[in-house]
Design brief:
With about 425 residues, the protein is of the alpha/beta class. The protein is about 30% helix and about 25% strand. Strands 4, 6, 7, 8, 15, 16, 17, 18 and 19 form a nine-stranded mixed β-sheet that branches. Helix 5 packs across helix 11 (about 400-415). The structure holds flavin-adenine dinucleotide. Flavin-adenine dinucleotide binds near residues 52, 67, 270 and 294.
Length: about 425
């Protein structure tokens, strides 16, 4: 049996005011969401063990585009998007693919996704995403400390680029929502685009510079740093596959793993796209689907852009990182178990070459990951309904790197029973 012992050393902070008392907490999932939750829970003085079948940050959090985007808060389903779907699906190089054998399983989620694109729902979801994303940098600074933050986070803004001159209906709504929230966003034309990013090929007609967005130098190292810091502060990271959460009449008893049971008073399910496999048994049936995404990593790319670029016409990102240039994006609806389709990654390279003709692909690596996606683009951050001691933190979809730090704070507040850092209502598990 693996039994959680008392912390070997004191954590970075003693239990805060209003904390219900130190408990044995198991966080399932060592991705960016689980590690953010674990860090704040340890700061509250809890005895924290993070369990993952992989080393920290080797799930979906390994391979994202690295964009940290406090000023990006529109959901994925937007008015006008449905009209684009048939064109995307009929184009093998388009940003969306569905494996037809998986369609019957995904259909209920897709129907909810379409309904989430109604304007009133988009406006409500945007407010909730803004609340979660807005404090991302301040909260990363708190998570990492000033040196870790300066090492891992880049504050160079982001550039959105379009090949079309006229904004779409979706673009106009996003513009309005940004204006309403007072976001700094500079509209730029082809000349300014060339000045800011001389490595880009001509052909971009429109740009938007978001100076208050940014990126991480390396998403994998970011999660690893949190894991190392947690261990340094007396928490534990355990490599094991969780097979079940054992619930007794009074709540959580232990977590069963392939390396033996781990005693727990509180369990946080932060298992990303796999979370329902652990929670379905006790009745948590929220609509979680995986939108699979791909990346191509170019270790020797040649001249690269000065800042992360969101290629809005191609629906993919180009992010300079400390270990090369990352091209990331595409959505593939094919479930958790199907093998990756490398062609989806190669499409990213093909598209990026049109924007950056000097790209050198020597030594490139491809990757596929599972975005944990809710149809309304809002994660679930909540107590598990009717199961005392179990908490939920998953479903961050396309923006989990951005939403993770505030999720961690909110989750620690919910465990402590103190006033939450943001209103938890929009992220409730019972909203469906
Ligand atoms: C191509 C792509 C680009 C993206 N770009 C961005 C971006 O630029 N900005 C942004 O904000 N977001 C981005 N995202 C989204 C972001 O990466 C995810 O939302 C985020 O990584 C989810 O984190 P997580 O901790 O919930 O999941 P994960 O990182 O997947 O962590 C969950 C962990 O749970 C573990 N686990 C699951 N089941 C078990 C079990 N039974 N036992 C033990 N362990 C288990 C898994 O091994 C995994 O490590 C992107 C995603 C993709 C795919």
């Amino acid at each position: 049996m693996i039994t959680s012992a008392s912390p070997a050393q004191p954590g970075p902070a003693q239990p805060g005011p209003g904390t219900a008392g130190a408990r044995r907490v198991v966080v399932i999932g060592a991705g960016i969401v689980g590690m953010s939750c674990a860090t704040f829970l340890r700061r509250d003085g809890h005895d924290v063990t993070v369990i993952d079948r992989l080393p920290p940050g080797e799930g979906t959090s390994f391979g994202n585009a690295g964009m940290i985007s406090p000023d990006t808060f529109t959901p994925i389903a937007m008015p006008g998007m449905l009209r684009k779907v048939p064109k995307w699906l009929s184009d093998p190089t388009g940003p969306l693919a569905v494996r037809w054998s998986y369609l019957p399983q995904a259909l209920p989620w897709l129907v909810r996704w379409i309904r989430a694109g109604r304007l009133d729902r988009v406006e409500a979801a945007s407010k909730a995403l803004r609340a979660l994303h807005g404090p991302a940098f301040a909260t990363y600074r708190s998570l990492l400390g000033p040196d870790g933050f300066n090492d891992l986070v880049r504050l160079r803004g982001q550039l959105y680029l379009w090949q079309t001159g006229e904004p779409s209906e979706t673009d106009r709504i996003a513009d309005r929502l940004r204006t309403e929230q007072g976001v700094r966003a500079d509209v730029i034309g082809p000349d300014e685009i060339r000045q800011m990013e001389p490595t880009l090929a001509p052909g971009f007609k429109r740009g938007l510079y978001l100076p208050d967005n940014g990126s991480t130098a390396n998403p994998h190292r970011l999660v690893n740093t949190l894991a190392r810091n947690l261990e340094g502060a007396g928490g534990r990271v355990l490599r094991a596959a969780v097979t079940a959460i054992d619930i007794g009449p009074d709540g959580v008893r232990r977590v069963e793993t392939d390396a033996g049971p781990v005693e727990a008073d509180i369990v946080v399910v932060a298992a990303g796209a796999w979370s329902l496999r652990l929670t379905q048994k006790f009745g948590v049936r929220v609509p979680l689907e995986t939108e699979r995404g791909y990346h191509v990593m170019l270790p020797n790319p040649g001249p690269v852009p000065n800042r992360p670029i969101s290629h809005r016409s191609g629906s993919f990102s180009i992010t300079p990182m400390e270990h090369g240039l990352r091209l990331a994006g595409t959505v593939e609806i094919a479930g958790l178990d199907a093998a990756p389709d490398e062609r989806r990654a190669l499409i990213l390279l093909e598209q990026a070459r049109k924007a950056l003709p000097t790209l050198n692909a020597e030594g490139m690596q491809t990757w596929m990951g599972h975005r944990p996606s809710m149809p309304d683009s809002l994660p679930v951050i909540d107590r598990a309904p009717g199961v005392p001691g179990v908490f939920l933190a998953f479903g961050h979809g396309h923006t989990g790197l951005t939403g993770a730090p505030v999720t961690g704070r909110l989750l620690a507040d919910l465990v402590a029973g103190r006033k939450p850092v943001i209103d938890p209502t929009p992220y409730r598990a019972t909203r469906f």
